Amino acid sequence: MAPIWPFKKKTEVAVLDEEPPATIVYKKGEDPNARETKQGVDAEAYKDALALFGDGSSTVEAASDQSVLYDGVTSPTQQLEQKSSAPNGVKVNPSEKPEWVHHTDGYHYKKLSDGSFEATPHVKQGDGTYVPYS
After folding, report:
1. In a domain? residue 69
2. Cα separation, 40 vs 38, whole angstroms
3. How many C-beta atoms lie closer than 10 Å to residue 63's C-beta?
4. N or C: which end of the chain has fewer CB within 10 A?
């Protein structure tokens, strides 16, 4: 014999007579979320924000071209040349031998002409040359 079912039997659900929602028709190329623009109101609000947060003037200027200031990607040798150049743009004589300083951490560091050191640690080879530690 089957056990007693602990749940109630389904009762009929009342069906309400209501109209289905209106059909929405989309056209090709039309944005269904597009709204009318309020150019006049937005322009005034923008100028007010410029006056409030800017320098006080409400004139709008075009952005400057930042690509003029970009030098591009440089190779590691070009970066070393840029680092070793003097602040006024005069390059240091590459024929001068760099001064190597042995640090207590066991690595050698290249001392630059301005007294600062190159951040890359180097290891001294048996033949006296220095190679970057990797």
Report:
1. no
2. 6
3. 5
4. N
pTM, two decimals, is 0.30
Give me 44's structure tokens: 């005034």
Q: Is residue 73 part of a domain?
A: no
In a domain, 10, yes or no: no
In a domain, 128, yes or no: yes
- Which residue has 């109101």 as its token pair? 41
Helix spans in the chain (H): 39-53, 76-84
Q: How confident is the model at residue 43 (pLDDT cuts 50, 70, 90)?
A: confident
Residue 110 CA from chain centroid, whole number: 33
Alpha-carbon distances of 29 from 34, 84, 119, rounded to whole Å:
11, 59, 58
What is the extent of the structural domain holding 110? 97-134
Percentage of the chain with pLDDT > 90?
4
How many domains does the chain contain in total? 1
Q: How many other CB atoms are found less than 10 A from the CB of residue 121?
A: 16
Instruction: Write out the H or E segment, with its range, that includes residue 131.
Output: strand 130-132
Coil/strand/helix, residue 80: helix
What are the backbone dihedrals phi and psi of residue 53, each rounded to the nearest 5 degrees, phi first?
Answer: -95, -15
